[in-house]
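Limitations
The structure tokens in this dataset are predictions for the assembled complex, not deposited experimental models. Users should treat interface geometry with appropriate caution, especially where small molecules or nucleic acid strands are included. An illustrative entry is reproduced here so readers can see what is and is not provided.
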Amino acid sequence: MTEPTVKDRVQELISENPVLLFMKGTPEAPRCGFSMRVVGVLDQLGAEYAALDVLPALDPLRGATGEIADWHTFPQLYVNGELVGGAEIVEELFDSGELAEMLGVPQPEPVAPAAADGAQQEAPYQSGPLQIET
Amino acid sequence: MTIELAEVERLISEALPGASVEVVDEGGGDHLRAIVSAPQFAELSRIDQHRLVKSAVRERFDDGSIHALSITVE
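Predicted assembly:
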């Protein structure tokens, strides 16, 4: 008996979970802005999904997903065994309604003014001009 | 280590003959965005479109010249 490799285990997870997110951190406490964006999309859709925190084994997991899906960055969202994409693609497919269709959930009604407010609230933190005393 | 935007455009253009490619710096010279429209994209899923563009510049990721590449498909 040989030990299952990381790649074997990743393939198992992908086939066992119809909607699987590889992310940095957890849905409750994302540790990366891109991962947080995908969690935000899935939450807006009310989709059920499994999430795996890649940080404890980042390099082996990067290697495994590189071999399996030719994709080397996280987050990665898999639906029905196929890699859908990272944050950028997930957001595009959410906006177009394709992601809701893939997940078999209703597309939330667009609420333009609220979305604009949200975008403002989520603007990245920027400090004032930094200075070094000389 | 940063990379000339023109070189990234060239790498993508060479991998995707007939494509129109624009690369812009989104921060620090190594966070780039490629805006690409290519005949090769027809019928491809979004992920496969991105794979094509990323594979064209894979070496520059591996050597650290590019840290992040966002892709806009037109």
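Some entries come with short summary sentences. For this one: The interface with chain B takes residues 70-72, 83-85, 88-89, 92-93 of chain A (CB under 8 Å).
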